[in-house]
Amino acid sequence: MEISQVKKRAKFIDDDKGKHVEVVLPYDAYQEYLDMKISVEFYESLQTQESIKRAKEDLSAGRFKDYEDVERLIKDLHE
User: Fold this and answer.
1) Strands (E), the chain
2) Which residues lie closer than 8 Å to 21 by C-beta, 6 or more apart?
3) Mean pLDDT score across all residues of the chain
4) Backbone angles phi, psi at 11, to 5 degrees
5) What is the predicted pLDDT for the residue at 74?
6) Tell me: the pLDDT tens digits for 6-51?
7) Cα–Cα distance, 79 to 1 (Å, whole number)
């Protein structure tokens, strides 16, 4: 769900001056909002960005193995 869809499902509670003071969301919209926030926080972390950069460099340089057999992959991981 996109942020614009979350906003459409929100119900705003205003004070006597018309200022929004609370928001009511359906639980599923709230949960999706939290999931989006967690994803953004994860990808914004410096450690994650560095890991992604290293992985892209490894792929570009051919430093990877392609496995069709999961058992072989597991065996190589334990060597």
Assistant:
1) 11-14, 20-24
2) 13, 14, 15
3) 90
4) -115, 125
5) 92
6) 788 899 999 999 999 999 999 998 888 888 888 888 888 899 989 9
7) 42
Residue 12 has φ and ψ, to the nearest 5°, of -100, 140
pLDDT score, position 8: 85
Q: Is the pLDDT of residue 1 over 70?
A: no
Q: Based on the structure, what is the number of domains in the chain?
A: 1
Nearest to 48 by CA among 37, 36, 39: 39
Q: Which of 34, 27, 33, 38 is nearest to 5 (CA)?
A: 33
Residue 2 CA to residue 33 CA, distance in Å, equals 9
Q: Which domain holds residue 25?
A: 3-78
